[in-house]
Design a protein that fits this description.
CATH topology: ph1033 like fold
Shape: globular
Mean pLDDT: 94
Strand order of the largest sheet: 2-5-4-3-1-6
Largest sheet: 6 strands, mixed
Radius of gyration: 14 Å
Number of strands: 6
DNA sequence: GCCAACGTTGGC
DNA sequence: GCCAACGTTGGC
């Protein structure tokens, strides 16, 4: 199956991208929203993920990769919730701010803009490539 | 701190 | 099944 692309949102005060870089991988658990859960379940090993800091100065700061597909969320006994394992791939040379994304016509369709509260969301391949490019990286 | 968007809960 | 109340998220 073709590689899929995603975006995960996190408050930097809770778990900054730097922490993920430091720990190399982390369990993306504690998600308690059905739509976000469905997205977690659809993730496959090897999928690429944009790491977004919400809160003050919201921006995409890095890229990670799914290293383990959905498994039962260890933070709850409830069977209904899942988590995935994420690995830090790289920090963007320049973070891509929400403001930049809003200004970029090719990114107008991003779920980030249309569904601001969704914490795990799908990203189109061309959107992912554009964000990576804006961040100072090469396009895929 | 405020407000908009949206999810959840509970009464009916 | 509808809707009001309430809670949470997240941008500003």
């Amino acid at each position: 199956m073709a590689k899929q692309y995603w975006l995960v949102k996190q408050e930097p005060s809770t778990y900054p991208f730097d922490k993920l870089v430091e720990e190399r991988t982390t369990s993306w658990d504690g998600v308690r929203n059905y739509q976000a859960r469905n997205n977690l379940q659809a993730m496959k090993k090897g999928d690429r993920v944009l790491y977004y800091h919400s809160g003050a100065g919201p921006e995409v700061v890095g890229i990670c990769e799914v290293v383990r597909a959905a498994y039962p969320d260890p933070t709850t006994d409830d069977e209904g919730w899942v988590s995935v394992e994420l690995k830090a791939v790289k920090r963007l040379k320049k973070p891509v701010t929400l403001e930049q994304i809003k200004r970029e016509p090719s990114l107008a369709g991003m779920a980030l803009l249309r569904q601001s509260r969704l914490s795990v969301q799908p990203v189109e391949q061309d959107e992912f490539a554009r964000v990576e490019q804006l961040g100072g990286g090469r396009a895929l």
